[in-house]
Every structure is written in structure tokens, then in C-alpha cells.
Specification:
- With 441 residues, the chain is α/β, with parallel strands linked by helices.
- It is built from 18 helices and 14 strands.
- It has a seven-stranded parallel β-sheet, sandwiched between helices. A seven-stranded mixed β-sheet has the order 8-9-10-7-11-12-14, with helices on both faces.
- It is globular and about 60 Å long.
- The chain crosses the membrane at residues 279-303.
- Keywords: Membrane, Transmembrane, Transmembrane helix.
- Residues 422-441 are annotated as: Disordered.
């Protein structure tokens, strides 16, 4: 495997003047400045200088941080920035519009890369275009390194590894149920979502919605897992109902991508591993209301007149929740793993944070992912479970090392208990009709 040679900067934040990019820089200014070599990069030097000036109030030494500039579509200019870094952390979306050249140059220059995209058609194209070349060079290109999809990806990885290492068995199913949460919405996230609806073909969007192995199949994995869909679903081990979760269509595909990549390294999650993600609702009525809300959001996003109307009342690109909202936010996912044993055991866990998921948590997740790639490279290379290079998922590239970094940064990722071998059947027996509905019968 190739080793990234020492370069002027360990970390370059690409899109540092954007809403999330600024937050990544804020984390560095507060917690890592002086401990890593880093620079801010983007298109507009005046905006970058303004962000640097504002961050110097947190840490006066930040006023000396270098600024690098390039247009995202100017390959030579992007290359001149990227080749100075050991890892590029990209927050400049929509990624289908602004990300192609940055990823291509990262691979060409032998630079690790991580971003916060949730645009899975673009991720699929990235795998098709760059996986082989990145793998040959030992370069790691990591997509979906924010709230989409680190909690889902690392949460499932944690549950499976516990079952394999502590219980000695694989996992047939992991459930991730979104619990209480509070957060804001930025214009950049909305622009990425609208860009996806406008520019991707109907057939591509249909494939995203119908194929749980949309990404995993590119790495050779197929199975019987199905997307959660919009209907309420009964969760047997919980003995309760769940409604659809907005980002399940992204997160579940990343989880199965990790399964595919780890299967190729002989660390499969299970013989026919399945993953479900939804919003915990307790009863059927609550789950139904969540389904109705999701359907309404889909109609608004799909129909141009309603989409245009929504844009008038929603944040514009560069805008997002204020500091009070970010620091007052929180999120939690409850995790349930069902083992492959007969009868199965049920393992419970959780992950979460005491800050806003989409921005404070996302920016910190991206940063810790990048730091794992450069500061913990020897540990990553020594772990036979992890991929050495290519277009990868966070878990397949960084696994236990990233879990450690996230916990040290204040995130919760923990296994909370194991229930008896009959527990996996108890919930299904309590409501066989609902269990059949959950299985799609």
C-alpha cells in the first residue's frame, strides 16, 4: 500500500467559507490548532479571510492559518491545492455539481479525501470512476462522513463487532431507531436535496429507492435486504412501531456498502445481513403520522411549483441554524442487533450527541474522520479488517479507530446489554400479523 508522504498540511478544509466548512474550522481552531498543520481552502479569498478573522476570536493564532484558493471546476488549480494536503475535507456541495474535480484530483495527487455528501447517485458514480485507481494508490476516498451516514454506519459496525467478538456469532439484522432529536436546517443541505431531484434521472432515483445494494453491488454484494419504504413498520425485538426516517435511503446503502467491503476482507456482518432504519413511534398511529409527513415532503420536493414555493421560506445556501440552536440541539439512535443463532439473542446499544446533528455533529464527525486517516494511519494499516484504499465507507476505512475518536470527542457509541436467546422471538410472537407486515407480506 502506498503511504501518503509528508506534505505542508495534514488537513485542508475545502469549502471553508461555507456554513459547515466554517464549523469544521471552528473545531480545529478550538481543539486542534497547534497540534496539526492545516489550511483553509475555497474559491473566494475575501470570504475565507473573513472566516479566518472571525475564528481568531476563538484562538488568536488562527489569523496565521494559510488560505488556498481555486475554483472547484479548474482542475490544475484544484490539483495545486490538493497536492499540498495529506487529507482534504470537503464541505462544498451540491457535490454532484462541485465535487467531481476535487475527488479526481485527490486520487491523482495521492491525497486522502472525506466529505459530507448524502447524494448517493453521485457516490455511486464516484465508486465507478475512482475506486480501482484509488485502491491501487492506497488512497482513501470517503463519502457520507457526517450525520449522513456516520451514526448509522459506525453504529451498525459497533453492534456487529460486539456480536462477533463477544458472542462469537454473526448478525442477521440491525435496527437503528431515531429517538428524540433537535436540530436546524441549512440552505446548503436543501440545495443538495433539490439538485438531486432536478438533475438525476427518474430511473436513477427509482433505483436508489428500490435497491438496498445500490452501492454494495459495485463491491460484489447482493442479498435479500429491502429498503424500509414509507409505510409504518413493526419492529419485533422492540415490540413497537416505527415510521420512515428521511435519510434511511442514504444511510442503509452505506451500511450495506460497509458490509460488502468487509465481506471482501472476510469480515462479513452476517450470512444475509439486513439493516432497518426508522423513527421510533411506539404505536401504529404515531408511525402513520410520520409516514404521512414524509409523503408530503416528497410531494413538495418532487413538484417544481411546490419546490419553488418552499425555497422562498427556507434557508438560502450559506445560511443555517445559529449558534444557540446548534449548541442546544441533540440526537439519539437506539440500536438493536439480532444474532444469527437459533434461537437468537438481542443486543442493544445506542449512539448520540448533545449538539445539533446536521451541523455541529456533522462537522466534528468529518474532522475526526480526516484526523483518523492521517494521525492514525499506522493503526488503520495494521488492522486486517479495514480496506487499504479505494472509494470507501467510513466504517470500512476507519472502523474501531474512528469509534474511539468519536467517543473521545464527546459522542456516545455504546453497547448497553444483551437479552436472552428467546428475546428475538418474543416481539414477533406478541403480534404475528404486524410482524408479517414488517416482513413485507
Amino acid at each position: 500500500m502506498a503511504t501518503i508522504a509528508p506534505r505542508p498540511y495534514q488537513v485542508v478544509v475545502w469549502g471553508a467559507s461555507g456554513f459547515t466548512g466554517r464549523l469544521v474550522c471552528e473545531h480545529i481552531a478550538r481543539d486542534y490548532h497547534g497540534k496539526i498543520r492545516w489550511a483553509m481552502a475555497g474559491r473566494d479569498p475575501r470570504k475565507l479571510e473573513q472566516v479566518r478573522s472571525e475564528l481568531s476570536r476563538i484562538n488568536p493564532a488562527v489569523k496565521e492559518v494559510p488560505i488556498l484558493t481555486a475554483d472547484a471546476n479548474d482542475a490544475p488549480a484544484v490539483g495545486s491545492v490538493v497536492r499540498q494536503a495529506e487529507v482534504v475535507l470537503s464541505t462544498a456541495g451540491p457535490f454532484a455539481r462541485y465535487g467531481d474535480t476535487v475527488v479526481a484530483q485527490a486520487v491523482e495527487q495521492g491525497t486522502h479525501y472525506a466529505d459530507i455528501t448524502g447524494e448517493v447517485p453521485w457516490v455511486r458514480r464516484s465508486i465507478q470512476r475512482h475506486h480501482s485507481a484509488a485502491a491501487a494508490k492506497g488512497v482513501k476516498v470517503l463519502h457520507c462522513c457526517g450525520y449522513d451516514s456516520v451514526p448509522s454506519d459506525l453504529g451498525a459496525y459497533m453492534m456487529v463487532e460486539h456480536c462477533k467478538e463477544k458472542l462469537g456469532c454473526g448478525v442477521s439484522q440491525v435496527y437503528s431507531l431515531t429517538g428524540p432529536s433537535r436540530g436546524g436546517l441549512s440552505g446548503g443541505t436543501l440545495e443538495s436535496a433539490f439538485n438531486l431531484m432536478i438533475n438525476e434521472s427518474a430511473s436513477e432515483l427509482a433505483a436508489v429507492g428500490s435497491d438496498q445494494y445500490y452501492l454494495a453491488a459495485l463491491h460484489g454484494l447482493r442479498g435479500s435486504d429491502k429498503p424500509a419504504g414509507l409505510l409504518p413498520r413493526y419492529v419485533p425485538p422492540l415490540g413497537g412501531w416505527a415510521g420512515p426516517f428521511l435519510m434511511e435511503g442514504v444511510n442503509a446503502k452505506v451500511v450495506q456498502e460497509s458490509n460488502a467491503l468487509l465481506t471482501s476482507a472476510s469480515y462479513s456482518y452476517g450470512k444475509d445481513f439486513k439493516y432497518f432504519e426508522g423513527v421510533a413511534a411506539g404505536g401504529l398511529v404515531g408511525a402513520g403520522l410520520i409516514s404521512a409527513s414524509m409523503a408530503l415532503m416528497g410531494v413538495v420536493a418532487w413538484m417544481p411549483p411546490l419546490r419553488a414555493l418552499a425555497r422562498r421560506f427556507l434557508p438560502a445556501p450559506g445560511q443555517g441554524p445559529n449558534e444557540e440552536m446548534r449548541k442546544g440541539g441533540y440526537w439519539r439512535h437506539d440500536l438493536i442487533a439480532v444474532t444469527e443463532e437459533e434461537p437468537p439473542r438481542v443486543v442493544k446499544g445506542r449512539c448520540g450527541d448533545r449538539r445539533d446533528p446536521g451541523y455541529w455533529s456533522t462537522s466534528r464527525m468529518l474532522l475526526e474522520t480526516g484526523l483518523a486517516l492521517v494521525l492514525d494511519a499506522p493503526r488503520l494499516a495494521a488492522d486486517p479488517r479495514l480496506a487499504r484504499g479505494g472509494v470507501l465507507s467510513p466504517a470500512a476505512a476507519c472502523g474501531p479507530v474512528l469509534l474511539e475518536r468519536l467517543r473521545a470527542a464527546g459522542f456516545t457509541f455504546e453497547v448497553t446489554g444483551v437479552e436472552g436467546q428467546e428475546a428475538g422471538k418474543a416481539g414477533a410472537a406478541a403480534d404475528p400479523v404486524a410482524a408479517g407486515t414488517a416482513a413485507g407480506k
